[in-house]
């Protein structure tokens, strides 16, 4: 796959960060697409290779040359990324707008959390409902799955429905743990998935939040009166 990806980039004289995607089945792989940009999943590559892809993307754009060759890039361990979305998996992953009333982020060794929201912020239906990219690393896949399950258990967001419980159930799924899955994985294993009861951690956090919550939480869009997004009038952003 790596050789095919490099060949594809050379054919079009591509020079910068990019991702070539393939589908793999029965010992063969098939070209899917090439994304000529940094990927949402770039954190996984950075965790296993120890290379800052964003920094190198900028340096290459400035005309600098790489100070490494392919044989210098060494992969170690295993990394997993989960995207935390404001969406409801039990309703075909429909967006779930709301206000982030309380948020507790996972911490610890081997955990990286690229979060894009804060407490008091309104998550609207006008944009992609991605809240955070939670990435973990460990020495092997089994331990990485365990670490991700633990990190997801520490991740608490109150005020809107997220896919965090759904992701935890995936981490516990036997087929996923055995790496026996396909593009039909969700339909085959979670077609009738429903949101269960909140965990004790979530209940405790909710009780504490209810005692300390401010009387009124203002949407993020109204915090800056000089923001162009606050004075758009009847226009709606199409982003």
UniProtKB/TrEMBL annotation:
<dbReference type="InterPro" id="IPR011764">
    <property type="entry name" value="Biotin_carboxylation_dom"/>
</dbReference>
<dbReference type="GO" id="GO:0005524">
    <property type="term" value="F:ATP binding"/>
</dbReference>
<keyword id="KW-0436">Ligase</keyword>
<dbReference type="GO" id="GO:0046872">
    <property type="term" value="F:metal ion binding"/>
</dbReference>
<dbReference type="InterPro" id="IPR005479">
    <property type="entry name" value="CPAse_ATP-bd"/>
</dbReference>
<dbReference type="InterPro" id="IPR011054">
    <property type="entry name" value="Rudment_hybrid_motif"/>
</dbReference>
<dbReference type="Pfam" id="PF02786">
    <property type="entry name" value="CPSase_L_D2"/>
</dbReference>
<feature type="region of interest" description="Disordered">
    <location>
        <begin position="211"/>
        <end position="239"/>
    </location>
</feature>
<keyword id="KW-0092">Biotin</keyword>
<dbReference type="InterPro" id="IPR011761">
    <property type="entry name" value="ATP-grasp"/>
</dbReference>
<dbReference type="InterPro" id="IPR005482">
    <property type="entry name" value="Biotin_COase_C"/>
</dbReference>
<dbReference type="GO" id="GO:0016874">
    <property type="term" value="F:ligase activity"/>
</dbReference>
<keyword id="KW-0547">Nucleotide-binding</keyword>
<keyword id="KW-0067">ATP-binding</keyword>
<feature type="domain" description="Biotin carboxylation">
    <location>
        <begin position="1"/>
        <end position="191"/>
    </location>
</feature>
<feature type="compositionally biased region" description="Polar residues">
    <location>
        <begin position="228"/>
        <end position="239"/>
    </location>
</feature>
<protein>
    <recommendedName>
        <fullName>Biotin carboxylation domain-containing protein</fullName>
    </recommendedName>
</protein>
<dbReference type="Pfam" id="PF02785">
    <property type="entry name" value="Biotin_carb_C"/>
</dbReference>
<feature type="domain" description="ATP-grasp">
    <location>
        <begin position="3"/>
        <end position="62"/>
    </location>
</feature>
<dbReference type="InterPro" id="IPR050856">
    <property type="entry name" value="Biotin_carboxylase_complex"/>
</dbReference>
């Amino acid at each position: 796959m790596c050789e095919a990806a490099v060949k594809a980039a050379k054919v079009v004289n591509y020079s910068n960060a990019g991702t070539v995607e393939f589908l793999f089945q029965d010992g063969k792989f098939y070209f899917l697409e090439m994304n000529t940009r940094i990927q949402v999943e770039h954190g996984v590559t950075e965790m296993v290779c120890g290379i800052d892809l964003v920094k190198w993307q900028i340096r290459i754009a400035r005309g600098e040359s790489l100070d490494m060759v392919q044989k210098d890039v060494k992969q170690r361990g295993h990394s997993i990324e989960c995207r935390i979305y404001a969406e409801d998996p039990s309703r075909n992953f429909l967006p779930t707008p709301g206000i982030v009333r309380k948020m507790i982020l996972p911490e610890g060794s081997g955990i990286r959390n690229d979060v894009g929201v804060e407490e008091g912020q309104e998550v609207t239906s006008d944009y992609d409902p991605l809240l955070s990219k939670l990435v973990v690393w460990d020495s092997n896949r089994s331990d990485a799955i365990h670490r991700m399950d633990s990190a997801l258990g520490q991740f608490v967001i109150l005020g809107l429905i997220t896919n965090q419980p759904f992701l935890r159930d995936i981490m516990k799924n036997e087929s996923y743990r055995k790496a026996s899955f396909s593009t039909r994985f969700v339909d085959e294993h979670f077609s009738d998935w429903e949101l269960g009861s909140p965990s004790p951690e979530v209940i405790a956090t909710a009780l504490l939040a209810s005692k300390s919550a401010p009387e009124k939480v203002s949407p993020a869009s109204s915090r800056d009166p000089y923001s162009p997004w606050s004075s758009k009038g009847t226009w709606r952003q199409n982003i």
